[in-house]
Structure to design on (129 residues):
């Protein structure tokens, strides 16, 4: 009765597998991301970004009143205040901080009116509370 010896066959199989692993590692080019690291001789004053102006924060109270700097305004006064702020601060932003208890339709309507004046520089503020 013939005997099948698997040991030499496994040796050959492992040798071939090792050969393919080594070849695949040599032939693949590792792609590196080029990162420009800051050097120690750079001036920290040069790395500072220009400071953006403080945003104009408009609040919408639970009663539906528009409040800016603790003063109650109507939509026309808010439009004038926004136009003045945006003209004085070309990189400024306007934030709408609405009460979470308000009807969402009121918030969207005011936000839409504000975007008609300020365009993409108007955002809805979200609190993390």
């Amino acid at each position: 009765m013939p005997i099948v010896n698997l040991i030499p066959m496994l040796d050959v199989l492992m040798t071939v597998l090792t050969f393919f692993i080594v070849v695949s590692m040599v032939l693949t080019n590792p792609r590196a991301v080029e990162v420009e690291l800051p050097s120690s001789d750079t001036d920290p004053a040069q790395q500072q970004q220009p400071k953006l102006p403080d945003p104009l924060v408009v609040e919408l109270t639970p009663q539906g009143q528009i409040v800016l700097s603790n003063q109650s305004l109507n939509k026309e006064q808010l439009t004038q205040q926004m136009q003045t702020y945006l003209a004085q601060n070309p990189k400024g932003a306007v934030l709408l901080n609405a009460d979470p208890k308000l009807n969402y339709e009121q918030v969207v309507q005011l936000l839409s009116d504000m975007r008609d004046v300020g365009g993409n520089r108007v955002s809805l503020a979200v609190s993390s509370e």
In short: The mean pLDDT is 84. The first helix runs from residue 7 to 27.
